[in-house]
Amino acid sequence: MRLILMGPPGAGKGTQARFVADHFGVPAISTGDIFRANVSQGTPLGVEAKRYMDAGEYVPDEVTNHMVRNRIDEEDARPGFLLDGYPRTLAQVTELDGMIGFTGHQLDAVVVLTVDPEELVQRLLQRAQTDGRTDDTEDVIRRRQEVYSEQTEPLIGVYRDRGILIEIDGMGEVDDVTARIFAALDAIPQS
Ligand code: ADP
Fold it and tell me: Which residues lie within the region annotated NMP (predicted)?
């Protein structure tokens, strides 16, 4: 399975990514997690990424594309993968098409989690208290939402036109959302 999990900040991508990846026996690849790991280890990539992340902006495409390409090339991603937080720009979509096409495979599905805007803000403010992420302040949350609408929301139409988009209601209990995703994905043919 080659899957993408999309949704606005706070939609529950990270939470669901782990369950879905385990279900299909593929690695969950989260660009946000990889950036945060680099930030905490103080690598050059982390130093560069932190400037953007703390402002709620996207890390430049070249940096992100390069990082994802390296990760997808690893052995565990041969049978498939679930991408959480990538692609987020049209340029990243094109880049990912190239990466997958090169291996002769195809993208199986793009899952979008939809959640009410007020609920999203509540979840992020809640996470700010429990996880202490430096990008979960009110100003930065607002900026991340703007950047998502401007740069990432258009991707939904792109994948809908390809006929691989699956929209899932992300409201309610975590387990219920997981069950909805499984039901939708179990119904599609695996490549
Ligand atoms: P969120 O919970 O807001 O969806 P993530 O944990 O997925 O956030 O990502 C945190 C930050 O990492 C983003 O705000 C952005 O700065 C950076 N980032 C993650 N994925 C990408 C990407 N595909 N392209 C550019 N920047 C990214």
Answer: 30-59
